[in-house]
């Protein structure tokens, strides 16, 4: 219990520090949108459709057949020029999404098959480059997007009760999880964007709030440091800002997902999550 108490005290101190910094940076972020020379308008609705292939893994679950995934999101977004520049834009978007992955058919008897149904909230931020009056390319980061997943087994290994139980741990109710979603979005015309992305969702067999909060707090510190450093780069080299922001924040998110691959609330010894990794392609319609 001692190490948990120490971690609580540490994270409390960090949260206070981060909150103070957030207040100081809030005014900076407000000015980020006030000195724009290029404005695509205030937040506007968007609809996104995507398709991808999901790879499912969990420590102790054996082989799980992949799923074809179909997704839909409804959201609001805003794109504006960054700090008065003509060729660099900043993107902010929020959305509610749902994704469905029916179980694989024709898989080998050695593989388990599952149905996936997930919904959640997506928060995307990033920077990009203008390619024309109505065209741009954006490098977007979606960090720690909250989600709830229903997992239902279709077939389980009969002779491997341990592997079967590793999947049954998720059945019976919606399971909380978190998602990272780096995306490359190319707006080919004012109303249409093409998107290519990667998604890594970790579904928790149970939600241990305090362990989750402490683990997320550690990641939040690292993510804030990466964001700050990327913006510092942008001050001296604006052209490098979109790519460096994308690389640094995505690197932090991927690193923490890897650390939690077999411990859902790293660095605390907790159960392994279900890891659902998806490469997807899609399109957005902007209104």
Can you give a write-up of this model?
By secondary structure, this protein is α+β, with helices and mostly antiparallel strands. Helices cover 31% and strands 42% of the residues. The protein contains four helices and ten strands. Strands 1, 2, 3, 4, 5, 6, 7, 8, 9 and 10 form a ten-stranded antiparallel β-sheet that branches. The longest helix has 33 residues, at 2-34.
Question: What global shape is seen?
Answer: globular
Largest sheet at a glance?
10 strands, antiparallel
Average of pLDDT = 84
Structural class: alpha+beta
Oligomer: single chain
Gist of the model:
It contains four helices and ten strands. The protein is α+β, with helices and mostly antiparallel strands.
Throw out a few tags for this protein:
alpha+beta, 287 residues, 10 strands, single chain, 10-stranded antiparallel β-sheet
Helix and strand layout, with pairings?
Blueprint: H1 2-34, E1 44-57, E2 67-81, E3 88-101, E4 113-132, E5 135-142, E6 145-155, H2 161-168, E7 175-180, E8 183-189, E9 192-203, H3 209-236, H4 241-259, E10 274-286
Antiparallel strand pairs: 1-2, 1-10, 2-3, 3-4, 4-5, 4-6, 5-8, 6-7, 7-9, 8-9, 9-10
């Amino acid at each position: 219990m001692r190490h948990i108490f120490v971690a609580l005290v540490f994270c409390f101190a960090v949260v206070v520090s981060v909150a103070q910094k957030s207040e100081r940076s809030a005014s900076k972020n407000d000015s980020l949108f006030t000195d724009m020379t290029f404005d695509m308008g205030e937040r506007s609705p968007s609809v996104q459709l995507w398709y991808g292939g999901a790879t499912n893994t969990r420590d102790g679950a054996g082989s799980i057949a992949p799923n074809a995934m179909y997704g839909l999101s409804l959201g609001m977004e805003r794109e504006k020029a960054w700090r008065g520049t003509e060729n660099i834009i900043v993107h902010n978007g929020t959305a509610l999404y749902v994704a469905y992955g029916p179980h694989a058919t024709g898989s080998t008897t050695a593989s388990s098959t599952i149905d996936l149904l997930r919904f959640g909230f997506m928060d995307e931020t990033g920077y990009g480059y203008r390619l024309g009056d109505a065209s741009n390319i954006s490098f977007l980061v979606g960090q720690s997007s909250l989600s709830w997943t229903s997992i239902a087994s279709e077939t389980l290994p009969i002779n491997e009760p341990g592997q079967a139980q590793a999947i049954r741990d998720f059945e019976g109710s919606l399971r909380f999880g978190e998602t990272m979603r780096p995306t490359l979005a190319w707006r080919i015309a004012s109303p249409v964007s093409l998107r290519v992305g990667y998604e890594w969702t970790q579904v928790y067999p149970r939600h241990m709030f305090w362990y989750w909060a402490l683990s997320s707090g550690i990641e939040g510190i690292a993510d804030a440091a990466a964001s700050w450093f990327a913006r510092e780069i942008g001050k001296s080299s604006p052209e490098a800002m979109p790519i460096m922001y994308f690389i640094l924040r995505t690197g932090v998110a991927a690193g923490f997902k890897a650390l939690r691959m077999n411990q859902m609330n790293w660095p605390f010894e907790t159960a392994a999550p279900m890891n659902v990794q998806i490469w997807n392609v899609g399109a957005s319609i902007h209104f």
